[in-house]
Amino acid sequence: MRQRWIEKDDEIIDLPNLTAVIEKEGKWFVAACPELGTASQGRTRTEAYEMLAEATELWLESASGAEIKRRLRRGARVKQLELTHASTAASFRRRGLPNSPPPRLCPRSSDRQPYYHAAGP
Question: Which of 1, 19, 107, 109 could hold 78 in an S-S bridge, CB 3.0 to 4.6 Å?
Answer without folding.
Answer: 19
